[in-house]
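INPUT
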Amino acid sequence: MISIKNLSKTFNKNIHAVKNVDLEIAEGEVVVIVGPSGSGKSTVLRCINRLEVPTEGAIAIDGVELTDPKCDIDVIRAEVGMVFQQFNLFPHLTVMENICLAQRKVRGRSKSEANEMAMKQLVRVGIPDKADSYPRQLSGGQQQRVAIARSLAMEPKIMLFDEPTSALDPEMVKEVLDVMLELASEGMTMAVVTHEMGFAKAAGDRLVFMDEGMVVEIGPPSQVFENPTEQRTRDFFDKILY
Amino acid sequence: MSGHEDSNKKSLSDKPKWWDTFPWWGIAIVAILSWMGYQIVTKNSYELAWDRVIPGISITITATLQAFAIALALGLLAGMGQLSKNVILRNLARTYVEFIRGIPILPLIFTVALVLLPQLQNALGFKLSFQMRATVTLAIIYGAYMAEIFRGGIQSIAIGQVEAGRSLGLSRRQTMNSIVLPQAMRAIIPPLGNDFIAILKDTSLLSVLGVLEITQRARQFSASTFKFREGYFVLAFIYLILTLGLSLLLGVLERRMTRDDRGVRSNRGID
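OUTPUT
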């Protein structure tokens, strides 16, 4: 479904954030990307919906090349949901309006269709009672769940999560991870950058360990955790797991 | 500081005293205006000046509104232009802004209204009155200032907002119109209000072209009667009424815009 070939991204001509990354993500697969900060994992994710334009290499979603000048990126992005570390809800709109905006403008749904879909997604993430609230009236965990609902309302084929729980207070991490776990169990294709190893074990089909812009190791989470083949992977997990 | 430690400690936990937050300045302004009004009403020579100056107010107000409206359009255009992806547009906008902002208003009024616009008139075959030429000049000047306000307001919106919009499939234009601009308005409206008042005051510069707004009328009155005190006293009074009234109005608008922002905002310093 997602095919990344020889992806490289260089910032300011000399900062090599991502170097020669190859990665295939199959339909319904949950791929979890971990690694130290600055290892390029977020950059890889952001290249998948072209928030970052690759310096080299090719990315194809459902066979459509993103780097092709003829590719209409807005069409692709409507099919690829993205959840950000900082939630990025629109503060001037209510929760309902947040979820309906793109449905109406991009999907061309009527107001009642969009509202119905929004309520459905709010029920799914467990906060239908917050439809008329403004983002600032919600906790971090609730905001992130609204952000997830906003993406899901577009009925995307793929969901990208860029450290979705890193900006949350500890007691709110679980409510967001629960939503993501459920999503994974329903068969959504997901690429998740996270430091939540518990989630990786529970939901991940494959774990990708990145360091210094390169993919060091890929495998089933349990194997990468317990029997990493690379020394760098072992060092990383030794530092973060106890 | 050290001498007041005791009272400081107390005031930290106390609610602010009413005299600490009372708008004394408002009382002072009202007192000054009342006194000025009293002079004008009771003294014959002031009344004379008033009668000569006040007919110019319609030109002052018309010029202000026209200049503000044109400047708003120019400012939005140039502000967005500076953020455009198009190289030519971006540089055109930047040149306009930098050029205008680098020259004081008075020389600009002379050169634009007396040289540039007349040449343009001849070339294109239209005719503008002195008043309109001066108004357009004012609009061109303030358009450049407003361009910076628009640009700043738009750039103050976090990049994450644009990314969220774009990653939902919204186009650049949709993201700008539905997400960025509505949020930017909050940052844009207060300084635009300041410029509105500044334009009102700067219509006084139209007097150098002989336009019969209030300043020109006050000059004429003073020069012909040698009652300089009365003429300029009345002029100052009229400007004060206009600008203070306007800023009161803008204050209400601003409060309405920011009311749902978050709770009460305090203008008192950090202890």
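end of record. The mean pLDDT of chain A is 93.
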